[in-house]
Sequence to fold (145 residues):
Amino acid sequence: MKSVSGDRRYSDCRRSRPDGTIDVVATIEDLRPLGTGLERSYEVYVRGRLKFRVGQIVYVAFSLDETEMGLAFPKVEREALVAGEPGKFRMPSASDMRFNWVEADLTALDAAEARELVVDAWRMVVPRKLVRAYDLAHPDGPGIG
Fold:
């Protein structure tokens, strides 16, 4: 099990699964290395909220309390995602429905799942050649962090 640092915002970052195993709930600190580690990606703070960008395109944004994450996600697939896992995902606000965007509850995601979502969001905003290069360098999936 991954250790939980005292610097986390959550008092308890562990979650028990039905099979008896324990997951560590995803936090911003699990995902922060991606914000600076993915090609052309960087982190910024806008009105106190951490966001990951490529150029001027935001592909991940965290809530002020760091419990929710909005991320780039294909419009045509988001209804199925939300319907399939309503405890983890929800549709974006009415004003953001026009964007390729979905909202996720970080407390319902484990760190590996959250990293995979961030990498997939990054893939939507970078040129295909960067995606191919990433895939060659990380054949087993998101390994940064």
Remarks:
- The chain has one domain: 25-127.
